[in-house]
Structure formats: structure tokens, C-alpha cells
Write a structure and sequence with these properties.
The protein is α/β, with parallel strands linked by helices and about 210 residues long. Helix content is about 40%, strand content about 10%. The protein is built from nine helices and five strands; from the N terminus they run αααββαβαββαααα. The strands form two sheets. It has a three-stranded mixed beta sheet. Strand 2, helix 4 and strand 3 form a beta-alpha-beta unit. It is globular. The two termini are about 35 Å apart.
């Protein structure tokens, strides 16, 4: 979900109303939007959304379920590995000191280390397990990840990417980048236990 734009209030609005915080406006707006889950983790059995990318994923999963044998669906988190996945995209920006926090910064990113994900997928493909699983070991806030990478690779911890620049560049796809969804980890049963379940030790190992 994307925060609603702040409305311009009349000069004679009550002082208490003028002083309401952004989070207060969010709570008031979200009550009018049933199913809005900015602060609620998503379990694996929750009904999918109705936006474009959600429907693409639903179509993929439905196509896979046409297979005659047992089907295991693993919904991937962001892959964390030096030079690969999301870190591979962010590393050059941080080394050049031009990386910034994607607003609002509080959105959650589900994540998993690359080798741990490979073990999950290998077990799902070679066993008789079936069902839907989350290929993620946890969630990290965008601003927390940004500052952790700044401490190791360089950059400005407080720098933010202007939201208007993202909207102009990405158009209708900007909300997907500026949004995020916390998930409840639900790994493939019987798969090897992930080595990395905390992000800070993983980043220390990768860039220490």
C-alpha cells in the first residue's frame, strides 16, 4: 500500500488536527481500506492481491499446479549474495556513494541468502513435498539495509531517493518499488537448515 497524499487543510483547521502525524493519517486512511497490510506480516496461505504483478504470479502458480505429480511452490524473497540479487544491484551505487533510501524507508523486504535458497529449491524439486512456501528467512527494513551497506561499502546513511523521481521514471510501477510486504517465514519442510538467518552477520561475512 502507498500512503495517501497529504491534504491541504484550511487555515482555520483546529490545532490538534493540524498537528497530526503522518502515522496518524495512515491509521485513519487504512481503516477505510480493509485488507491494507502495511504493518501486518503476510502468512503463506493469505489470498493474493488483485494488482498486476500479483495476478501474474497467480497465473504462474496455477500453470504449475496442472502438473500431474506433487507440486511445491516456493515464493522467493530477495536473494542476498555479494555481486548477485539485490546486493549486486546496490553494491556499485554504494561504492560510488550515490545510493539512497527508497521512500518511505519503512517498507519490509523478505530476504534469504543465495545458497540457502538453492538448498530449499533443490529439496523441493527432488522430494515429494507439496504445498506453498515462503523462500525467506526474515524481513529487513529498506532504511536498515541501506545504512548497513553504507557502513560497509560507503555512502550517506540519511540520503533518500526523491519519490517524485521514482514516479516520473517508473510511472505506474513506482508503487511496487516503494512498497513492500513483510512475510511470515515458511520454509520447505525437510530442507537443510539455513546457514544465515540474521542479516548483519551475513553482511559482515560478505564485506568484512
Amino acid at each position: 500500500c502507498v500512503l495517501p497524499p497529504a491534504r491541504r487543510r484550511a487555515p482555520d483547521a483546529p490545532a490538534a488536527h493540524r498537528g497530526r502525524s503522518r502515522s496518524a493519517r495512515w491509521r485513519r486512511w487504512s481503516r477505510r481500506r480493509p485488507g491494507c497490510t502495511r504493518r501486518r506480516a503476510c502468512p503463506v496461505d493469505r489470498a493474493p492481491g488483485d494488482d498486476f504483478l500479483a495476478q501474474v504470479c497467480v497465473a504462474w502458480e496455477n500453470a504449475a499446479r496442472q502438473h500431474a505429480g506433487p507440486v511445491a511452490t516456493v515464493r522467493l524473497g530477495h536473494v542476498m549474495a555479494p555481486g548477485e540479487g539485490i546486493l549486486g544491484r546496490l553494491e556499485p551505487l554504494h561504492r560510488a556513494r550515490i545510493a539512497g533510501i527508497i521512500p518511505p524507508g519503512s517498507q519490509q523486504l523478505p530476504w534469504i541468502e543465495a545458497h540457502d535458497l538453492a538448498a530449499q529449491l533443490a529439496h523441493a524439486a527432488t522430494s515429494s513435498v507439496q504445498g506453498t512456501f515462503h523462500g525467506a528467512v526474515g524481513n529487513v527494513r529498506v532504511d536498515t539495509l541501506h545504512r548497513a551497506l553504507c557502513a560497509r561499502l560507503g555512502g550517506f546513511p540519511q540520503l533518500k531517493v526523491p519519490a517524485i523521481a521514482l514516479r516520473l521514471r517508473l510511472g505506474p510501477f513506482a508503487p511496487y518499488l516503494m512498497g513492500g510486504q513483510e512475510v511470515v517465514p515458511h520454509l520447505v519442510p525437510g530442507a537443510p537448515k539455513p546457514r544465515w538467518t540474521e542479516l548483519e552477520p551475513l553482511l559482515d561475512h560478505a564485506y568484512g
